[in-house]
Structure formats: C-alpha cells, structure tokens
Amino acid sequence: MEDVLICLTASHRNASFDLLERLSIGAPTAASRLVTDSDVLDGAVVLATCNRFEAYLDIAGDDRDSAVSATVDAVAAASDLSPTELRDSVRVLGGKDVVQHLFAVSSGLESVVVGETEISGQVRRSLEDARSNGTTTSDLERLFQEAAHTSRGVKTRTRIGAAGRSLVRLGLQLASSRVTDWARTRVLLVGTGSYAATTIAALRDRGAVHIQVFSPSGRASWFAAKHDLVAARDLRQAIGGSDVVITCTSTEVPVVAPADLDDGVRRIVIDLGLPRNVDPAAAGVDGVELLDLETISIHAPINELNAESEARAMVDDAVSRFRAQALEQSTTPALVAFRKHVFDILDDEIDRAKRRDGDAASVEQTERALRHLVGVLLHRPSVRARELGRAGRGEEFVGAIDALFGVQPAPEAELPSPVVPLAERTAPGRDDVDRADEADAS
C-alpha cells in the first residue's frame, strides 16, 4: 500500500485562497484525463473544496517523481496556473502519511474550523466522482471507505463537532457582533444549493425571519416555496433592501459587484462562495463590511483541545489498524498461490484414487480424510503468513514458498479481493450522516 499511494495536498495552511479558488474550478476536470493520458498512474481521486486541494494517486510502478510531475502539469493546465506555482504550493505525502492525512481531513481535523461537518461529505463525493470517471482503484477504494468509516466513528464517539463550527455559523457569529437584532434584520441570500439550506437553518437559529433569496440560475421561486422565503427577481433591488447579504452560489464569476452596493449605506456582506461570489473591490465601498472565506478563517475559534486530542487518538488507532490490515494482506497473493498449489496436488491424488478403486464409499472416505489432513497442514502456514505480513516481513513468506515449492504469487488482477468492503460493515454508533455533510459551497 505505502509504495503505491501518494497524495498532493494544498490547503489554507500553505496556499493562498486565490490559488485554492482556481483549483476548485479546474482540478476536478483534470482527474479523468490525468489517468487516461498517463502511463504512470493507475488511478486518482481529486478533492477540491473551498479551502483545500487533494489529489490521491495510485502509481503504476514506483516512479513517484513522474507521477507528481504528470499530476502537477495536468491540474495546473486545467486551473490556469503555472506548474511551478502549483508545485511550490503543494506538499507531497507518501506511505503512512497518506493514510494519516486523509483520515484526519475526512474527520474535520484539518479544516479551517476544526470539527466542521461539511468535509466528510465532500470527501465521499470525491470518491463517487472518481467512480463515475473510472479513475478509482481497489487500493483507493479501501483507503477512502476506511476514511469514511473513521470519520463516522469520530463524529459519533467524540465531541469534536462542538470544537468547531461550520463556516456558515462562524460567519454569522462574526456578523452578530454588528447585528443588534436578527429578528428585525433584512437578509438576502444569493444561492439555492445545499449550502444555502444550511445557511437558512443557521439564520433561523439566530432568529432571522425577513429572508429573501435570489438565484443567478433562476431557481429562486422554487427554493423560496420549499423553504418559506420570499423570492427576489432583481438582484440590485434586493441588495438595496437588505441589511445583510450572504452569497453561496457555484457561479465561476462574481455575482455581486461594487456597483451593486450603495455607497454610504451600512451593510454586511458575507461571501461563502468559492470561487468568490463577491468582487473583492466591494470591500472598498463606503459602509460595506465584507466577510469572505479568508477573513472568516482568520477568526476561526481556538480548538477545544480535549475533544480534538480524543479525535486525533481515534484517527491514529484507525491508521494503525488500516496499515496492519494492508501489511497482512501483502502475503495474500503468495498464500493463495500456495494453497492452490497444494489443493491441485490433492485433487490429482483423489482423481488417481477414484481410478484405482471403484468403491465409491471407500473413495469418498479417503477424499474426506485427505481434505481434512490438508486443511490441518495449511492452517499453520496461513497463520504464519499473516503474522509475517503484520510484522512487515511478508517477503520472507513469499521467498520461502518459492524456494521450497517453486510457487510464486499470481498477478494481483487475477486474485479475488480478500477484503470485505468496508461499506458493508456496521459502523459503531449511528451510521447515518448528518445533513450538514451534504452541504458544500456549490
């Protein structure tokens, strides 16, 4: 596992929001071409959100440098970036670090606001997109399914969700220091996606009742009827009648320009979109206070250390289990080949017994005894193979059966998967996913 999977990652910690904004548009479109046009990659899962870019790669062979270069070139071209600019902004992870990183990301431990719930849904959808594009592999499937399993366990068994708040709620909290009474505040919501639904719930929790919605795509009437809002037909007019404007739409160009905002009128504009929904120059309009993702991230609250420590300990345990399972499976191809070798010999002996002895009852008794004997003899080598695998000494078992019996593992593509899909497991606690997991900036 650790020899073939690598990760390219850039986030709010080490990259500008402008670069992440470009990646959020271009990177997902590069995934399918990345695999089909490259001889060095078997698979790729690309995650691009409002504050991070991740490319998880299954390398065809061990040429890590070529895989990184091919990925950087493809993603940079799709995102209108220079390869040098992108390469300078990403970290490259391999081995155990790939597993550790994805499990922590999926559990909300690497987000702008630690413990936010949106990221686990975004990770899940990145795998679904890879499946649709035909770019996932069995190793990537196992990695992402276990990451989902881990994030559910963290969510249900720790209070990490209380350690941080979603970007929506954090943005509203920052705005609340300027809003005296949400019940009297006129709010305009620009956008009708799942993130908009999360925003409405957060607004109503604070007592907001005067909410209009505008949709650049013309869905305002439908969305307003569904959520008991007022649909706005003209954006400029709706902004003029609002005290707070919140944008969260997936448009690739700003929908709110400085000219849409009246000079000298006190107004709070919260831009939750990525790409930006509000022209940054709007911050220069007299009376306008612009809270965008970059501003909100600066005010992310201090972590509740106990909850985060508990969550990280759970992630560490999950990583150890995953790696132990992967190491144990390293001997599976050799063990399958060895068992096939032994049972082929057994079947030949049984066939000879049937030809020598016409007594069906006697042959059946002999066959039963031989199969039992072979099962007993194979038990200890099977156990030992798993033990050696977990200890990182799987090559000793492979070498031993080759030296003693001339048996070598079959290519992996010819082997049935020895792993029960993690999606079929029952996670500890409730297995459902919070609604907020479905929310994203689009």
Q: Can you tell me about this structure?
A:
The chain is α/β, with parallel strands linked by helices and 442 residues long. 51% of the residues lie in helices and 12% in strands. The protein has 16 helices and ten strands. It has helices at 17-36, 64-78, 83-87, 96-106, 118-133, 138-157, 160-163, 167-176, 194-205, 220-227, 235-240, 293-298, 305-329, 332-356, 360-390, 394-405; strands at 5-11, 41-49, 52-59, 91-94, 186-190, 210-214, 230-231, 244-247, 267-271, 288-291. The strands form two sheets. It has a six-stranded parallel beta sheet with strand order 7-6-5-8-9-10. It has a four-stranded antiparallel beta sheet with strand order 2-3-1-4, with helices on both faces. Helix 9 (194-205) links the parallel strand 5 (186-190) and strand 6 (210-214). Helix 5 packs antiparallel against helix 6, helix 6 (138-157) runs antiparallel to helix 13 (305-329) and helix 14 packs antiparallel against helix 15 (360-390). The longest helix is centred in the C-terminal third of the chain and has 31 residues, at 360-390. The radius of gyration is 28 Å and the shape is elongated. The two termini are 33 Å apart. Residues 413-442 have low confidence and may be disordered.
Short description:
The chain is α/β, with parallel strands linked by helices. The chain is built from 16 helices and ten strands. It is elongated, with a radius of gyration of 28 Å.
